Amino acid sequence: MKIKLHEKDLPNNLNFKNSIAIDTETMGLNPIRDRLCLVQISKGDNVCHLVKLNSIKDRPKNLIKILKDKKIQKIFHYARFDVAFLKYKFKINIENIYCTKIASKLSRSYTDQHGYKDLCKEILGVEINKSSQSSDWGNFILSKDQLKYAATDVLYLHKIKKELDKMLLREGRHRIAKACFEFIKYKTDLDLLGWNDNNDIFKH
Ligand code: MN
């Protein structure tokens, strides 16, 4: 794995064609309260680009351009969280979303283990270390362990997607998966408007 750390934005010369794996690290779980600290992106070529945002005023133009590009598929694990954060922070809409957590829940109904770590282990046979998950991502200087952890979170998403797509097709769940991915942009709007899990509009 190759890690490229960028301050405040992606460089101008980077070209992401069809799809990117993407993840974020934040100061907490609340997009309105908490700061977005890091955005990780990979083409699935073992190179992970980390964009470090140091202030709430940072507006990364190149990164935002990629996020808004409907032609680029964005592969997340638990897209609901990252999409809500990115939409709220940059006041943008994000389309063409894929979520490996939803794909896993729809295809692997024999288990309740749908974490990124679980998918890496079962689908790819790779053990990953999640010990930096709840660390101080707001620090001006991130540790080697934090950088490695953050990059690893996007490293395997393309491979996981490929295997989950086969399972979705095999189980006849690919259409409902696609509909769920398309709904994420509205689901995150509901979350940001206050209709979250405690106030589920689909519930009786
Ligand atoms: Mn992460």
Protein described:
The protein has 7 helices and 6 strands, in the order E-E-E-E-H-E-H-E-H-H-H-H-H. The chain has a single domain, classed as 2-Layer Sandwich (Nucleotidyltransferase, domain 5). Helix 2 (79-90) packs across helix 7 and helix 3 (100-107) packs parallel to helix 6 (157-170). The mean pLDDT is 96. The N and C termini lie far apart (48 Å). The protein is globular, with a radius of gyration of 16 Å. It has helices at 61-68, 79-90, 100-107, 116-124, 144-155, 157-170, 174-193, and strands at residues 2-7, 19-26, 36-42, 47-52, 73-76, 97-99. Helices cover 41% and strands 17% of the residues. Helix 2 (79-90) links the parallel strand 5 and strand 6 (97-99). It has a 6-stranded mixed sheet, with helices on both faces. It is an alpha/beta fold. Manganese (II) ion (MN) binds at residues 23, 25, 153.
Can you give keywords for this protein?
204 residues, alpha/beta, Nucleotidyltransferase, domain 5, 41% helix, binds manganese (II) ion
What structural class do you assign from the helix and strand content?
alpha/beta
- The name of the CATH superfamily reads Ribonuclease H-like superfamily/Ribonuclease H
Instruction: Predict the CATH topology.
Output: Nucleotidyltransferase, domain 5
Adjacency order of strands in the biggest sheet: 1-4-3-2-5-6
| Helix coverage percent | 40-55%
Rough outline: globular
| Percentage beta strand | 15-25%
Bound molecules: manganese (II) ion
Unreliable stretches covering 5 or more consecutive residues: none
CATH architecture verdict: 2-Layer Sandwich
Strand segment tally: 6
Alpha plus pi helix count: 7
What is the name of the CATH class? Alpha Beta
Sheet with the most strands, sense and barrel status: 6 strands, mixed
User: How many separate domains make up the residues?
Assistant: 1
- Mean pLDDT over the full residue set: 96
Radius of gyration: 16 Å
